Amino acid sequence: MGTLYDQDIAAWAQEQAQLLRDRQWDQLDVEHIAEEIAELNLRERHELAHRYTILLSHLLKWRYQTERRSSSWRNTIRDQRKRIARLLERTPSLKHVMDDAEWQSDVWGDARDKAVHEAGLDYDVVPKTWPWTVEQVQSQEFMPE
User: Fold this and answer.
1) In angstroms, rounded to a whole number, what is the distance separating the alpha carbons of residues 48 and 9?
2) Distance, CA of 10 to CA of 7 (rounded, Å)
3) Most buried residue, 5, 111, 123, 139, by CB count within 10 Å?
4) What is the domain partition of the chain in residue ranges?
5) pLDDT tens-digit readout, 108-119
6) CA 36 → CA 23, 39, 65, 106, 135, distances in Å?
């Protein structure tokens, strides 16, 4: 049948939190707690990459499809910037991730693919590398022209 961790992770998490509060160290599921903490970091990094992919793909569409610009695109850009800002407020240690060249390359590649496929853009027109600074991308005032 398996452990509570295998059956209902939410109930397991509540139980483990209570055991921690009660200082019942010998009852803790240390291996799974460590696994979940490590996974939390990966989930937060994935969330940041996902938000950036959406934001950058919309900035690309805004830049290269001027005739199709809409309030919907502008709202998506504004919304993603707000979500990124909240994520970085909640987990400021992720700010260093955005300076990583490999992370930027991965996110840019995903955003470029997304924009090309969704908007029918030509790969040769869209830059192969991230053309803006992180500060520009996060700024509510910046819109690529």
Assistant:
1) 24
2) 9
3) 111
4) 4-138
5) 999 999 999 999
6) 19, 5, 42, 25, 32
Quickly tell me which residue has 């109930």 as its tokens.
Answer: 11
**DSSP code string of 35-82:** HHHHHHHHHHHHHHHHHHHHHHHHHHHHHH-GGG--HHHHHHHHHHHH
Of 12-21, 36-45, 79-88, 115-124, least confident by mean pLDDT is: 36-45
What is the pLDDT confidence band of residue 1, given thresholds at 50, 70 and 90?
low
Domain 4-138: which CATH class? Answer: mainly alpha
**What's the rounded Cα separation, in Å, for the pair 137 and 139?**
6
CA distances in angstroms from 98 to 43, 46, 89, 106, listed in the order given: 15, 12, 14, 11
- pTM as predicted: 0.82
Q: Give the rounded distance of the alpha carbon of 94 from its chain centre.
A: 10
Tokens of 52: 């950036």
The residue type found at 90 is R
